[in-house]
Amino acid sequence: MNRLALSARVERWPIAGTFSISRGAKTEAVVVVAELADGTHRGRGECVPYARYGETVDGVTAAIEAMRAEIGRGLDRERLQSAMVPGAARNALDCAFWDLEAKSAGRPVHELLGMHAPQPVTTAYTISLATPDAMARAAAAAGERALLKIKLGAPGDPARIAAVRRAAPRAELIVDANEGWRESDLATNLAACAEAAVTLIEQPLPAEHDDALAHIAHPLPICADESAHASASLRALVGKYDAVNIKLDKAGGLTEAFAMAREAERLGLTLMVGCMVATSLAMAPAMLLAQRARVVDLDGPLLLARDRPDGLRYEDSRVHPAVPALWG
Questions:
Q1: Which range marks the domain in which residue 135 is found?
Q2: What is the model's pLDDT at position 285?
Q3: Of 88, 109, 130, which closes a domain?
Q4: Domain annotation covers residue 133
Q5: Residue 300, pLDDT score
Q6: What is this structure's pTM?
Q7: pLDDT (0 to 100) of residue 157
Q8: Is 247 an annotated catalytic residue?
Q9: Hey, which residues does 32 pair with through a beta bridge?
Q10: Which of 149, 151, 240, 250 is catalytic?
């Protein structure tokens, strides 16, 4: 195999409006793209530094570039798993390795994984945290979509979810509180979500305080997000959560994400596949994992003002697998 050349770059993609969750709001997606080239083929991977875990754009870019010498000396995807910690930087490199392997072999990644060809899946569409009236208007505008993901995590959430349900009576609703609730308001908020026929709630409590979930009845399934990282984190979820949201940026790439999925299924946890706000290049690998998930939330490109060329095709609530020109 030819010696691989590594490059990394930062890209900024405007968001259509503002994306708001319980921890704040942003108007652009800042992503880091890693590229591996062997002189004939090029593989790409995209990641989003996760500020919740102390990641920064500069830090992730530096972590990718720090692997240049090791990659030049023959570091491959398998050894990458132990050479870097889980996180956004390893995700970009892991996905770049998969893309390069596929293009070098002339076979799609799903074949390299021994999978059937991926099929379109239904994805959630996110309604950002705002006032009840603003969220109701946004939900009404998207009310024909099959699945809406409602961002909560602030005082007054029962009014928000009730307003959204009235505005979108036919849509399936899932809720993401982004660690914004507390044990004192947990029962009230869970009851409001049950009244609105929500089917899943993501990360209601801060990860460091989620032990309370083991001692309260769940009127509907609760999914771990910020409490779940790589495979080693999953056993601690049993008894507190019913499902786990696997994100490639947390897991550190597609390789570990599939390992997480196998372990989660062994532990009896339902699978959800999620994303950060990013372009289709970040969604494409996750589409393979989405084939085995009960809930799919890969709407990142839909929240952008524009996507990259050859992006994923979204039709109503369905998202189609990537074309080789994009990834894999």
A1: 121-319
A2: 98
A3: 109
A4: yes
A5: 95
A6: 0.94
A7: 98
A8: yes
A9: 10, 47
A10: 151
CA angle 54, 207, 160 (to 5 degrees): 100
Q: How many CB atoms lie within 10 A of CB 82?
A: 7
Please report whether residue 116 resides in a domain. Answer: no
Within this chain, do residues 190 and 308 fall inside the same structural domain, yes or no?
yes
* pLDDT for position 181: 97
Structural domain includes residue 328: no
**Taking the CA atoms of the chain, what radius of gyration do you get in angstroms?**
19
Query: In this structure, what is the dihedral angle of CA atoms 38, 44, 50, 54, given to the nearest 10 degrees?
Result: 10
93 and 148 share a domain?
no
Catalytic residue among 103, 149, 240, 247: 247
4 vs 57: CA distance, rounded Å: 23
Q: Which of 181, 119, 313 is nearest to 190 (CA)?
A: 181
231's tokens: 């495979």
Tally of domains in the chain = 2
Beta bridge partners of 125: 148
CATH code for the domain in which residue 35 is found: 3.30.390.10
- In percent, the amount of the chain with pLDDT more than 70 equals 98
Same domain, 239 and 144: yes
The per-residue pLDDT for range 159-185, each reduced to its tens digit, is: 999 999 999 999 999 999 999 999 999
> Is 297:69 a contact under the CB 8 Å cutoff?
no
User: Tens digit of pLDDT for each residue in 188-214?
Assistant: 999 999 999 999 999 999 999 999 999
Residue at which a domain ends, from 83, 109, 135: 109
Query: Would residue 327 count as lying in a domain?
Result: no
